[in-house]
Amino acid sequence: MLRGIDRHGHIAGRPGWAGNASADGRMSGDGIARVIKDTAARAGLGHTAIRGHSLRAGGATGAYLGGADLVSIGRHGGWSDGSNALLRYIRDVDRWQKNPMHGAGL
């Protein structure tokens, strides 16, 4: 969970917070998008190169390539067990390495 922090360093959802985050301090989707766009622009990637879904897909893909099972990835990312949506987030990084026909003699 990403939490808001105001210009005085107060963390959202704690005493001293005066911002407009949710009661538990979670950042809004728009807030996360602004942070990602600003960070991408400062890194020279352009403001449209990376979005929140890029981070979500990258996390799911990295976990899968690292050997994590789909159930663990799905639960960590908030997908329901057996979710087809999760499979759309895992990107084909190396289609030859993860090719299901590898070793089939074809």
Overview of this protein structure:
This protein is an all-alpha fold and 106 residues long. Helix content is 40%, strand content 0%. The chain is built from four helices and no strands. Helix 2 packs antiparallel against helix 3. The longest helix has 14 residues, at 29-42. The protein is elongated and about 65 Å long. The termini are far apart. The model has no long low-confidence stretch (mean pLDDT 79).
Structure at a glance:
The protein has 106 residues and is mainly α. The protein has helices at residues 29-42, 52-65, 70-77, 84-89. Helix 2 (52-65) packs antiparallel against helix 3 (70-77).
Question: Percent of residues in helical segments?
Answer: 25-40%
Gap from first CA to last CA: 45 Å
SS-based class: mainly alpha
Q: What's the overall average pLDDT, rounded?
A: 79
Sketch the topology as an H/E string, one letter per element: HHHH
Beta-strand segment tally: 0
Q: Outline the low-pLDDT stretches.
A: none
Specify the overall morphology.
Answer: elongated
Note the total helix count. 4
Major β-sheet profile: none
**Radius of gyration in whole Å, from Cα?**
18 Å
Strand content: under 5%
Observed structural traits:
106 residues, mainly alpha, 4 helices, elongated
Record the SSE blueprint.
Elements: H1 29-42, H2 52-65, H3 70-77, H4 84-89
